[in-house]
Amino acid sequence: EKGGFKHFMLKEIHEQPDVVKNTLMEFSEIEKVVGKFSKFKRICFVACGTSFHASLVGKYLFETLLGIPTDVLLSSEFLFSEGALDKDTLVILITQSGETADTLKALKIANKKSETLAIVNVLGSTATREADHVIYTRAGPEIGVAATKTYVCQLVSIYMLVSAMSGNDKLLAELQKVPDHMKQALENEDHIIEIAKKYKDANDFFFIGRGFSYPTALEGALKLKEITYIHGEGYAAGELKHGPLALIDDNVPVLAVVPPGESHDKTLSNIEEVKARGAKVIAVGSSKDEVLKSESHDIMGFDGDISEMLSPIPYVVPLQLLSYYISVERGIDPDKPKNLAKCVTVE
Ligand code: M6R
């Protein structure tokens, strides 16, 4: 049932290029959903955990490509923002399981005042029955507690949604190349195993990124905490000097997400800052980026042109693999991390 892989998580990581392709086939269904939308002036994403990180990418996409003001709220905090809901707001709930208690509670509240759209992986789950509109991701069942393939499919669905709403065919065409970009990270597995062995005994890690790479940094840190029990802190690279820089020294590796593009040079200067405090830097970026290579101790690189805007989908793959292999090196079962359930059904 694990298809020859040691764990479900590893199998699910490897399934990603294929499930992304399956999810891409849903574009015409998404166009139908978009055709039914009323007019709205604001978007509010609501989600927990990994689905929250997918929502953060959604915010930058909606604001960059459609200019629609977009908020992202944690489901458990949504209650406190109810006052700002109205009929001009589209509330988008992202939930793999469709059964997360906090997200279902938020959906109930949102349904009273606003139009709701749920992006869900599990067919027929409660969220799909209660939302006004539904988009299905086609990740297939995810058994590992850590969300991997469902995250990348959520991202693909959001990119397609924005593409359908904006008529941006270029984005849609670029999305078709994402499965091949993801395969590159999977082909680099041996190199990632070496990096995992090198850093497996760290007690703390920082993950940094800007703009489209900030959610990737948060997601990398969440994976690390969840399945390796190492403290991983995801931070907007530009916020480092507003406090956490005080924690950086030669015992704290820093993983920097640095695709070529607008945010590149600024994140590079953050790399210099952490190196000046002794930190080892592991970078995710382009294999052609000679400056990044010379500035970092280890690099998990991608060939080919991946736009900054689309980088969140392939760039998360090496981070998933890194946490997976650190978990295995530390003798942990990544499929069943302690104290965690696949679906959180209590508020
Ligand atoms: O099923 P949901 O997408 O609503 O679940 C939300 C979170 O519980 C989930 O993403 C959790 O953070 C993952 N285990 C992280 O890997």
From TrEMBL:
It catalyses: D-fructose 6-phosphate + L-glutamine = D-glucosamine 6-phosphate + L-glutamate. Keywords: Aminotransferase, Cytoplasm, Glutamine amidotransferase, Repeat, Transferase. GO terms for biological process: amino sugar biosynthetic process; carbohydrate metabolic process; fructose 6-phosphate metabolic process; protein N-linked glycosylation; UDP-N-acetylglucosamine metabolic process. The active site is at K342 (for fru-6p isomerization activity). It is found in: Cytoplasm. Its EC number is 2.6.1.16. Residues 33-171, 195-337 form the SIS domain. Its main location: cytoplasm. GO terms for cellular component: cytoplasm. It is an enzyme of class 2 (transferase). One of its GO terms (molecular function) is glutamine-fructose-6-phosphate transaminase (isomerizing) activity. Homodimer. Catalyzes the first step in hexosamine metabolism, converting fructose-6P into glucosamine-6P using glutamine as a nitrogen source. This is Glutamine--fructose-6-phosphate aminotransferase [isomerizing]. It comes from Methanobacterium spitsbergense. The lineage of its organism: Archaea, Methanobacteriati, Methanobacteriota, Methanomada group, Methanobacteria. The gene is glmS. The chain holds residues 245 to 591 of 591 of the full protein.
